[in-house]
Write a structure and sequence with these properties.
By secondary structure, the chain is an alpha/beta fold. Helix content is 27%, strand content 25%. The protein has helices at 31-50, 69-81, 93-103, 130-136, 250-272, and strands at 4-11, 58-64, 85-90, 114-119, 125-126, 144-148, 150-158, 161-168, 176-180, 201-204, 210-214, 229-230, 247-248. The longest helix has 23 residues, at 250-272.
């Protein structure tokens, strides 16, 4: 018998005081930013949610209440395509946090004892088995962290080209949290790194289950410079169509990994001679 509900939250364009510019110095939430972010969302993030093998989840996506009408029409179209997708319009980040706690209980029923919450950025992707894997690791334990530790980073380098590397991190941004419905605050109550200190944690790292997408309009994320690169991603596992695949170079990947191995070997030798 199912005793939990699984809620995934995503902040799309909700204003926050700390977000002043993108990594390239552009103004966030401008029409140019919205155009680019909706394109990324529709080409990468949204298809990965539509592609989930386990459909039993609720996806709450938060938008600025001042979102222009042309984008509201896109949001309406997305709602028609995916029954798990539920748009919520708010004034600011504080209202988003409050509304999240108010809305979630609407999805509880008489059997619900626990809620699983996950928070995914609007430009990232999840493997088709991501939701299923989270729910497979559910245990009826309050404040249980479900930590899917292995994924990819995909960095767009220009046009339809990119580089990809493994992303392994304990308590990364794709962590989920199980809580009793009588005392829930959602996974967003803490910075994701804090969950590595939780006494109750289950982890999975046998296969990559997410993609963190790095592009020019990111705010904070950076490409890992010492992580092993790869030249193949099965994009269909993440719902990505052929025309939206980024080309990964075998030669560039080989050269990078060779330099990486040499650099790490030199570090080891240097330490031995100290």
């Amino acid at each position: 018998m199912e005793t939990f509900k699984h809620i995934i939250s995503t902040r799309f364009n909700v204003p926050t005081e700390i977000w002043k510019t993108t990594r390239t110095g552009k103004k966030p939430l401008s029409d140019e930013w919205l155009e680019d972010r909706f394109e990324i969302f529709r080409q990468y993030c949204f298809p990965s949610f539509k592609n989930q093998s386990q459909k039993n989840f609720v996806w709450l996506v938060f938008f600025d209440i001042l979102t222009p009408q042309k984008y509201r029409e896109i949001i309406s179209d997305i709602r028609e395509e995916c029954e798990q997708f539920h748009p919520v319009f708010v004034h600011d980040f504080q209202e988003m946090s409050t509304r999240l706690l108010e809305i979630i209980p609407q999805y509880f029923d008489h059997k619900t004892e626990y809620v699983i919450t996950t928070d995914i950025d609007n430009d990232d992707m999840i493997h088709r088995s991501f939701v299923a894997e989270v729910q497979k690791n559910f245990k009826p334990v309050h404040n249980l962290a479900i930590d899917l530790r292995l994924g990819f980073q995909l960095t767009k380098t220009g046009g339809n080209k990119g580089v990809a590397n493994y992303y392994y991190q304990v308590a990364n941004p794709f962590v989920s949290l199980v809580e009793k419905i009588s005392d829930f605050r959602t996974v967003t109550k803490e910075n994701h790194l804090h969950y590595r200190n939780y006494p109750n944690i289950v982890s999975e790292d046998t296969s990559p289950l997410f993609i963190q997408f790095i592009h020019e309009n990111n705010l904070m994320n950076e490409t890992f410079q010492n992580s092993k690169r790869i030249s193949k991603i099965n994009y269909s596992d993440f719902g990505i169509s052929k025309e939206n695949e980024l080309l990964l170079s075998d030669m560039t990947t080989f050269v990078f990994n060779t330099k990486r191995l040499l650099k790490n070997a030199l570090k080891i030798l240097s330490k031995r001679h100290q």
